[in-house]
Every structure is written in C-alpha cells, then in structure tokens.
C-alpha cells in the first residue's frame, strides 16, 4: 500500500467487517489489516449492530445477506450513530434493486462478490462522487448469467421447475446449465 493511501485513511482507521462466510471474513480482515485498517469482525446482523452502536467505526464492509437478516439493518444502525462513516455493501447476488436499496439506507458503494481487498479499499477511499476504478478482473457475461441463474434457483428453494418458469426457460435447458460447472 502506498504512503498516499495511508494518508487517505486519516486518523481513525477503524473498520467493521460483517459477513457470515467465516473463511472469507478472516481473509478480508487480514488483507485490510495489511492495508492499514484496524478491523473488527461480526458474522451476524446482531453482532454488527452491537459493534456499530458501541464503537461506530469510520469504515465498514457489510454483506447484504446474513443468516439472521439483512446487512442493510447494520448499515442503518451505523449511519445513525456515525453519519460520516464510509460503508461498502458486499453481496454475492448483485442486482440493481439491491444496489439502490443499499445506497438509499446510507451505503457509500456496492460491490458484487467476488471482490478482492483492493476493490474494497478503492471503494472505501473513493472521494465524493468520484467512482473507483473498474475492477482488473470483472466477471464475464457468462459468469454473471450463471450467478443470476444460481440466485434465482436458491430463491426458489432449489426447485428446478419453479426456477425455469421464473427465468422463462425450458426446464431441461435449466437442468443442463445447473449440471455444468460455473464459467470463469
């Protein structure tokens, strides 16, 4: 990390990380620590809100979907206690509607997983309306399509017929797509 990045962090380097994917959470915490942040982690909405209320951090990276609810509840709690906090919402289910909802409740930016630590730092440190640079390795169109199909499949409780109906595709076509590995 360059010295200019350290200066951009300012005095308060506190960072709240909330994600229910524990291995990802540990990796991100280590990576952010190496970049000068002082991370504190939580795996639930309740844990994230407790930290936000007790010790509101200057920065936060919050997963949208957590096992005990929506990460947007943590965003709202943090925004209430610390209006100047820079908050990035992460999710494996990237959609325009959820991005709009995240920004409306106070998120600074919105990133789809998989996002690496550099993408997160760029989003956290972007100034004002300045957009962070585009990712070095964006998902391919095939991968985005596959992620969307997987998301709808999960939302339909892994019911192939219901998923096919909602995606307006033939059930057998969907079965072939689901049987394949994810594209790069």
What is the 3D shape?
Answer: elongated
Give the termini distance in whole angstroms.
Answer: 28 Å
Integer average pLDDT: 82
Using only C-alpha atoms, the radius of gyration works out to: 18 Å
The CATH top-level class label of the largest domain:
Alpha Beta
Main beta-sheet annotation: 5 strands, parallel
- For the secondary structure, the number of strands is 7
Count of discrete domains: 2
Q: If you consult CATH, what is the topology of the largest domain?
A: Rossmann fold
Return residue spans where pLDDT drops below 50 for at least 5 consecutive residues.
1-7
- The CATH architecture of the largest domain: 3-Layer(aba) Sandwich
CATH H-level superfamily title of the largest domain: Response regulator
Helical content (DSSP H or I, runs of 4+): 40-55%
State the order of secondary-structure elements, H for helix, E for strand. Answer: HEHEHEEEHEHEHHHH
SS field, number of helical segments:
9
- Helix-strand makeup class: alpha/beta
Short description, anyone?
The protein is an alpha/beta fold.
Structure description:
- GO terms for molecular function: DNA binding.
- This is Photosynthetic apparatus regulatory protein RegA.
- The modification 4-aspartylphosphate is found at residue 63.
- Residues 14-128 form the Response regulatory domain.
- A hairpin with a 2-residue loop joins strand 4 (65-66) and strand 5.
- It contains nine helices and seven strands.
- The protein has two domains: 3-125, 3-Layer(aba) Sandwich (Rossmann fold); 141-179, Homeodomain-like (Arc Repressor Mutant, subunit A), CATH 1.10.10.
- With 184 residues, it is an alpha/beta fold.
- A five-stranded parallel sheet has the order 2-1-3-6-7, with helices on both faces. Strands 4-5 form a two-stranded antiparallel sheet.
- The longest helix is centred in the C-terminal third of the chain and has 15 residues, at 141-155.
- It has helices at 3-9, 22-34, 45-54, 72-81, 96-104, 117-125, 141-155, 160-167, 171-179; strands at residues 14-18, 38-42, 59-63, 65-66, 69-70, 86-91, 109-112.
- The radius of gyration is 18 Å and the shape is elongated.
């Amino acid at each position: 990390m360059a010295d200019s990045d350290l200066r951009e962090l300012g005095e308060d380097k506190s960072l709240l990380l909330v994600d229910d994917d524990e291995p990802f959470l540990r990796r991100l915490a280590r990576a952010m620590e190496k970049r000068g942040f002082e991370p504190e982690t939580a795996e639930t909405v309740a844990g994230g809100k407790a930290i936000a209320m007790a010790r509101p951090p200057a920065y936060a990276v919050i997963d949208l979907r957590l096992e005990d609810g929506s990460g947007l509840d943590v965003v709202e709690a943090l925004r209430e206690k610390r209006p100047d906090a820079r908050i990035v919402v992460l999710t494996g289910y990237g959609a325009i509607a959820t991005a709009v909802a995240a920004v409306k409740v106070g998120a600074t930016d919105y990133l789809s997983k998989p996002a690496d630590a550099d993408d997160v730092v760029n989003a956290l440190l972007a100034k004002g309306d300045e957009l962070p640079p585009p990712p070095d390795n964006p998902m391919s169109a095939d991968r985005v399509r596959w992620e969307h199909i997987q998301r709808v499949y999960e939302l339909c409780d892994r019911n192939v017929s219901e998923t096919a109906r909602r995606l307006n595709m033939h059930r057998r076509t969907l079965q072939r797509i689901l049987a394949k590995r994810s594209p790069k």
